[in-house]
Amino acid sequence: xxxxxxxxxxxxxxxxxxxxxxxxxxxxxxxxxxxxxxxxxxxxxxxxxxxxxxxxxxxxxxxxxxxxxxxxxxxxxxxxxxxxxxxxxxxxxxxxxxxxxxxxxxxxxxxxxxxxxxxxxxxxxxxxxxxxxxxxxxxxxxxxxxxxxxxxxxxxxxxxxxxxxxxxxxxxxxxxxxxxxx
Length: 182
Ligand SMILES: [Zn+2]
Description:
Layout: E1 11-19, E2 22-29, E3 35-40, E4 48-50, E5 56-58, H1 61-71, H2 79-95, E6 100-102, H3 103-117, H4 119-131, H5 135-147, H6 150-153
Helix pairs in contact: 1-2, 2-3, 3-4, 4-5
This protein binds zinc ion.
């Protein structure tokens, strides 16, 4: 680390703290005595998702969000809940320390979390995802399911519902043809 003022590489750490995923350090140059800040962060590798047909594509958290969001359509699940699910899946993916992860593994991570969050979204995702080889078919089926009247829609356990309101807003029917989980 070179001092931004005098380019000396001799510094002393005067303060260390965590800022999000990073470590922030205040340093004092041992030559000119100016202070400066450095951040230390894990370098993220490009993670590839291996699809069933062998194609690879870079992991894209937005695509993952959209895939889960579709399964949660019209359920009492906020976008914040989906966002934190995506964050947790993303960190689990990086914990695997692999450069390639099969889409099946990603699908299982989604199902593990949906199971704990909402029975209907889980059943919808699991039953549909497990029997379709590609996500386009999955999305058509999800759209079909959400068009049915509520009593036919899915298995529903009364205790599974909460009073939380739907905060996802519009755009539920927007078309995204590729949402990662295929
Ligand atoms: Zn200096």
